[in-house]
């Protein structure tokens, strides 16, 4: 891609519960407002977006969407009928997809592959909220099924040059995703406190821990689960393996946050937007 371009930040966005943020669910009002505020805070519109979604894991190497006009994947169930007729006609960017794949292969991810996979709700929900005009090209990027923190940190480092090319890099997921606690009777206050405790720790780690120690801290959290204590394992590995207030195991969302934090280390370049107990 040509330069010069305005250097874009990186950010992690909480996309909420399925399509609820774009169905005007009252419980997601603050989350939607936060995403809109983030989009409005960009001093220059990005030339494109690379979005890392927690809802796509690949076993054989990173997946990169390369279709010119991707479809939407309604990868949720049990919602009102309008949740399955949504449209978002932003273009894809085959040239950027090839650039992303090239950067990853150059960093040792030889099995990076391009695909015409549709955009899942981890992509289209925050983009519909923050960029409703659907004019910015999007390339969706998978996580690795191994959920290995070292590999995701390496992917982040490989893609960092895209920021200087005017590309906004986003991670999309939830930092706290204990659905059992959300639905349990009489646990709302406990759940909110645990969520706030973990989110505070995670924000501090991603913005204040020195680059030299960052990798070791993540490994310690992921494999030992003693970052904040009070861990509570649940049985929902598809989105959050070891959902807890203290982070017992790596999860797709944790990989996303580590990923974007690696691309843009420090307070000025790494931004977060969340409603952590949703």
Provide a quick synopsis of the model.
The protein is an alpha/beta fold. The protein contains 8 helices and 7 strands, in the order E-H-E-E-H-E-H-E-H-E-H-H-H-H-E. The strands form 2 sheets. Strands 5-2-6-1-7 form a 5-stranded parallel beta sheet, with helices on both faces. Strands 3-4 form a two-stranded parallel ribbon.
Number of separate helices = 8
Whole-number mean pLDDT: 78
Shape: globular
End-to-end separation? 38 Å
- What is the spatial order of strands in the main beta sheet? 5-2-6-1-7
The low-pLDDT segments are 228-250, 264-278
Q: Describe it for me?
A:
Strand 3, helix 2 and strand 4 form a beta-alpha-beta unit. Helix 4 packs parallel to helix 8. The longest helix is centred in the last third of the chain and has 21 residues. The protein has eight helices and seven strands; from the N terminus they run βαββαβαβαβααααβ. It has a five-stranded parallel β-sheet, sandwiched between helices. The C terminus is likely disordered. The radius of gyration is 18 Å and the shape is globular. With 278 residues, it is an alpha/beta fold.
Topology:
Blueprint lengths: L9 E5 L14 H13 L6 E11 L4 E3 L28 H13 L6 E3 L5 H10 L7 E7 L4 H11 L7 E7 L5 H5 L4 H21 L2 H14 L27 H12 L6 E4 L5
Parallel strand pairs: 1-6, 1-7, 2-5, 2-6, 3-4
């Amino acid at each position: 891609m040509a330069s010069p371009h305005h250097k874009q930040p990186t950010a992690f966005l909480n996309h909420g519960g399925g399509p609820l943020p774009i169905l005007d669910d009252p419980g997601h009002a603050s989350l939607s407002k936060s995403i809109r505020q983030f989009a409005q805070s960009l001093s220059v519109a990005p030339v494109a977006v690379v979005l890392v979604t927690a809802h796509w894991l690949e076993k054989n190497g990173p997946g990169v969407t390369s279709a010119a006009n991707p479809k939407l994947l309604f990868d949720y169930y049990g919602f009102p009928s309008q949740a399955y007729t949504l449209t978002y006609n932003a273009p894809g960017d085959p040239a950027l997809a090839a650039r992303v794949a090239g950067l990853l292969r150059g960093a040792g991810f030889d099995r990076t592959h391009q695909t015409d996979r549709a955009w899942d709700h981890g992509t289209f929900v925050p983009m519909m909220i923050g960029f409703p005009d659907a004019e910015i090209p999007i390339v969706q990027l998978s996580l690795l099924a191994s959920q290995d923190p070292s590999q995701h940190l390496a992917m982040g480092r490989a893609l960092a040059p895209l920021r200087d090319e005017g590309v906004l890099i986003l991670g999309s997921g939830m930092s706290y995703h204990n659905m059992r606690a959300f639905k349990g009777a009489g646990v709302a206050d406990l759940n909110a406190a645990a969520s706030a405790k973990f989110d505070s720790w995670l924000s501090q780690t991603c913005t204040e821990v020195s680059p030299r120690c960052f990798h070791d801290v993540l490994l310690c959290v992921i494999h030992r689960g003693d970052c904040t204590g009070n861990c509570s394992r649940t049985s929902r590995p598809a989105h959050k393996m070891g959902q807890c207030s203290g982070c017992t195991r790596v999860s797709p969302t944790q990989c996303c946050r580590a990923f974007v934090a690696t691309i843009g280390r420090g307070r000025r370049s790494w931004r977060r937007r969340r409603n952590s107990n949703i």
